[in-house]
Amino acid sequence: MAFTDKSSSTQGGRASAGGRDLLWTGVVASALAASFAMALYFRMYRVYYWGWWIDEFDPYIRYYLALYTLQHGISWWFKGAYFPDFWYPWGVNWATVLIPGVSLYGLSVYFLLKPFGFDLWHAVIVAPALYNALAVFTMYYFVSRFADRKAAVLAALLTAIAPTYLQRGFGGWFDDEALTLFLAPLGLGLLIDALKRRPVLYGVLGTAAIGFVAWTWGAQFYIWNLVGLSALVLVAYAVLRSAQGMSPGFSSRNLAISYAIFYFLFAAFESAVLRYGPHMLRSIYNFIPTLGLLAAVGYYIAEARVGLARSYRFLRRFAWVIAAAVVLVAGSIPILAYFHVISGKFLATILPFGRSAIVQSVAEHSYSTFQLELGSYGPVIPFIIASIPSLASPYALPLLAYLVTGSYTAVTEVRLLILVAPAAVAAAAVGMAQLLRIRRFGWAVALMAIASLALFAALGWGTATAPQQIVVSATAGPSVPSADWLDALMWMATRLPPNASVAEWWDYGYWVTILGHHPSLADNSTINSTQIGTIGLAFMSPVETGINIFSKDLKTDYIAAFMPWTALCAYPGYNQFGLWSNQIVQLGNATGWFALPFCSLVPEIPAGGDFLKSYWMAQIANQVYGSGVVKFGLPASYAGHLANPFGYFFTGTSQTGPYFVVGNQFLIVPLNLTTLLYAMLFNMERVYWMWTAYSPYGYPTWIFAGVPAANIITGNETYLPWDVYYTYAKIQPQNQVVLGSLCTVSSAGFCYPIAGLNATSFATTSLPPNLRLVYVSKPYGWVVVYQIT
User: Fold this and answer.
1) Cβ proximity of 181 and 165 under 8 Å
2) Strands 598-603, 699-702: pairing kind
3) What per-residue confidence (pLDDT) applies to 444?
4) For a tag site, which of 116, 354, 505, 740 has the least CB within 10 Å?
5) What is the pLDDT of residues 332-351, one digit of tens each?
6) What is the pLDDT of residues 49-87, one digit of tens each?
């Protein structure tokens, strides 16, 4: 009878435990489904709100090549193809510049959604949102390999709302990051599983996931080396544990087999695409992975044949050799950089000071800032720190290596804040779960976790609701919805002669070719620094020299330029500061001079145009040509102006030298209107094309030129310095907000001359007869196109 009672009790306990497991499985499944739904909603919201637009610049070439792959098959990625409409007049073979992964994952979503009526355009808009939302499942899987299911569920929830996942994972961002954030945790999770069981199966699956990253994003070099570094860390961990007489906690056989599979199978992925090829396996990028292979296999052989105790004693004798090797590797990096073995943005990641002007000119390659880091991970940083003690286990060591090295790369390059996202989110989830287990602080930690999640969600929502770049015509600080670039591209597509090429700064090359349907001279791939330098020199040269460079050297007849500007007369409050007026002001008695009704125009508000980018045009031109500008008919001294453009081409942001202040804000304004770019941007003809809306306010005037005045007796015209206008217009001293004025006549400490400013006409600067304005965009007139006649 006692036996029967005991058996019944045991069976009841098992049934109860089974019920709890089933309930917990249901909770986990529901949490993952809810996280996925929320993730997809966040990522598609800007599409719902702003429309079905591909975002930014790079995703347009990804769409173009996905369409080309759909029409011509995948084989061209491995054989090459010539595209004459990019980098005119030279053309480009995109198979040697880009990689096929983005096109393939876009096509996978296209074939999935085609039965529901989706075309390729709409499918590639959905694709990044879908794969990036699916990352909630791969993050759950990744974290569950070394932590409990509570931490894994928290990781899935954080993934759904993390700003860094959303930044490059929303609908329309059809580029490499969205898929990488899905694949990287999946591949790493599978490789961790390979340490535990079935190393061949999980090694192959994990390498396949990470191998496809090699076909997707150039940051695969980091993932490739991260896996090699993880193998080295695991071997070092095992040696230290053995020295302490303890088990390493994982199978050396599984490590050797799975890592060997990774090493050789990943090499096959790397070698298959034309951009990399087999030579990449002989490059410096394969150094750490090769060390990882030697360490993993050597550790297994030592354990199997010699024994770890004897191996450890052997290693101790050569500790100084190992230390010297580490120092040698670290010291070799500057040498390798000098010989261009490591270069470009990869060098900029390892050594932040090793940046060319072109790399520096790309916003996403700039240094990260404390503010950006707080906006990306601030609410969860305490939990990330709390997780670190929990990551000293063999299966969590890859995450620790990822977190440490990824944090360094994220500081050196702002775009790589996204690369570290899986590590940061996983660590935050582990730390949160660990702190919630401490009963003494349970409620406090729970409230802190809820507050962090709410703030994290708010930051993510701010990212999710932002409009696409083309909706705001590439403006920033703040972005303003505008159809100017869309209008310009439609005009190019329908009004320019067939096959006419368009010169533009490289930011807009993809738009011009893919949406404007005309050859562009440069684009965001920035593969031809000489051509970019030539374009920069043409823009920043005197007008006739710039025209000759474009027409003769670059063989184009159309030039596009972009600069947002704001008319202050649209804002009544600025009238009290004298920044616009609808009144005529007499300038003294019996002089015949009157200040006319006027409206001040402020360049680069909102920001993002070619005037601000002219700094980089000058810098890159100087880096490419230096004193070699003489070949274009410029004096060798012109290189000095290009190298130090502040004070010659435009003002600085301090009171040392020419400056221009409105209120308490320094404005960068031109000092030299004789360059081709500035003549295109600041000629008043482009303003008058669309001045109808503001015509009741009188004459438009660039704020740096002063106030338009005319003599009713002689008919002469000129610009008044702001201090002169303030005196006659009786503007109160506290409202005299313009300081450091620029004008045609210099006076001590206040006015600085502007080269090329027309002192006898309101045209500001005159265009030569061989440069004709043929288009001004609507509604704001921010994009202009000139024809070289």
Assistant:
1) yes
2) parallel
3) 80
4) 116
5) 655 555 555 555 555 555 55
6) 999 999 999 999 999 999 999 999 999 999 999 999 999
Q: What's the rounded Cα separation, in Å, for the pair 137 and 568?
A: 51
Q: Where do we find the tokens 């930690």?
A: 445
Whether residue 376 contacts residue 163, with contact meaning beta carbons closer than 8 Å, is answered with yes
CA pair distance 190, 203, nearest whole angstrom: 7
Residue 104's CB is within 10 A of a number of other CB atoms, namely 17
Query: Quick one: which of 284, 277, 300, 282 has its CA closest to 96?
Result: 277
State how far the alpha carbon of 593 is from the alpha carbons of 584, 682, 712, 717, 747, in Å: 10, 25, 7, 9, 20
* Of the candidates 158, 210, 197, the residue with the CA atom closest to the CA atom of residue 402: 210
C-alpha to C-alpha distance for 741 and 207, rounded to whole angstroms: 63
**Sign of the alpha-carbon dihedral angle for 629, 632, 637, 643:** negative
Distance CA 188, CA 394 (A): 13
Q: What is the mean pLDDT of residues 445-471?
A: 86
Q: What is the mean pLDDT of residues 308-329?
A: 60
- Which two structure tokens, joined as six digits, stand for 599? 């409206």
Q: What is the pLDDT of residue 405?
A: 87
CA 82, 85, 86, 87 dihedral sign is positive
Mean pLDDT on 688-710: 85
Handedness of CA 540, 541, 542, 545 (dihedral sign): negative
Indicate the pairing of strand 771-776 with strand 783-788.
Answer: antiparallel
C-beta neighbour count of 149 within 10 angstroms: 16
For the stretch 406-416, what's the b/e string if a residue is b when 16 or more beta carbons lie within 10 angstroms of its beta carbon? bbebbbbbbbb
Position 325 confidence tier, pLDDT thresholds 50, 70, 90 = low
The pLDDT of residue 30 is 93
- Is the Cβ–Cβ distance between 46 and 467 less than 8 Å? yes
Candidates 684, 682, 712, 680; CA nearest to 699 is 684
Q: What's residue 1's pLDDT? A: 41
CB distance 607 to 564 below 8 Å:
yes
**pLDDT higher than threshold 60 for residue 750:** no
Position 330 confidence tier, pLDDT thresholds 50, 70, 90 = low
Question: Considering Cα of 206, then 211, then 212, then 214, what sign does the dihedral take?
Answer: positive
| Type of residue found at 494 | T
Distant-in-sequence, close-in-space partners of 8: CB < 8 Å, separation ≥ 6: none
Cβ neighbours around 280 below 10 Å, total:
18
Single-letter code of the amino acid located at 241: R
pLDDT at position 208, please? Answer: 96
Q: Which residues 6+ apart lie within 8 Å of 276 measured at CB?
A: 99, 214, 270
The pLDDT of residue 154:
94
Can you spell out the DSSP letters for 590-640?
A: SS-EEEPPEEEEEETSSB-SHHHHHHHHHHHHHHHHGGGGGGGT--TTHHH
Q: Is the dihedral of CA 119, 125, 126, 132 positive or negative?
A: positive
Strand partners, 410: none
DSSP 430-449: HHHHHHHT-GGGHHHHHHHH
The predicted structure's pLDDT at residue 306: 66
Please answer whether residues 230 and 398 qualify as being in contact, where contact means their C-beta atoms are separated by less than 8 angstroms: yes
Task: Specify the higher pLDDT residue, 321 or 691.
Answer: 691
Mean pLDDT of 581-604: 89
Sheet holding 738-739, edge to edge: 665-666, 661-662, 738-739
Question: For the chain, what is the mean pLDDT?
Answer: 87
The C-alpha atoms of residue 626 and residue 640 are separated, in whole angstroms, by: 8
- Give dist(CA 143, CA 189) in Å, integer: 8
Q: What is the pTM of this model?
A: 0.90
